[in-house]
Amino acid sequence: MKTRSFAYAALVTLSLGAPHAAADAGWVHSAPNVTLAKPCAPSDACLFSWTMASRMGHILKFTQDRYGKRDRNWTLLGVEFTTRDAPQVWYPNFGAGSNTIIIQLTESAGRDEKQALFQLAHEVVHLLSPAGPSGVASVLEEGLATYNSIEYLRNNGFQIQPDYISAARYMRAYQLLLPLTSRPDFKSGIRALRASRQSLSRISATDLMQIYPGLRFVDAQALAAPF
User: Which of 48, 55, 189, 203 is exposed most, by the fewest CB atoms within 10 A?
Assistant: First the structure.
């Protein structure tokens, strides 16, 4: 969720409810339904159980249906787990013009499907209009990413409340965004901001007030601020 050097902080019919197994041979201490794809039973309406790779596709579709297609100038390499204490979008450097992105989730998320999906649905929002390795997310973008996490989990049968957000700064960004989400033009406004600025982070308070008539300047200013 953070911004650092080289870091900014996917489908056939599949089964949402992947059965658990005793262990993942590739990563002994991970949850099998996070990392291990297993063939479904012949009676099931799926080919393989879901892992983070297939979940990413499902989340990406969920997110793009709401806020527009992601910038295809960036190549998405996939999802991995990291020993860092926070998830992030990482921009690996393979030389000039590589424009590649990896989503990194925390090691603890590898043992907790709900946490992994919460983190993944957040980071997918940063795939829409990547700011690059030196970019800084706006409060609006981080608020939207946090909102997307909760909405995705709720839409897929998980019980979750805003108190699941553990970091105060992300809770603040979520709360600042929340009034916009009740507007009928909320989603179209996000798409319009992306179209006009090619980013959710290179925006101004004026941009927000033009897109969302009636938005108070103080609120627009808070949303447009660097996170």
Answer: 48
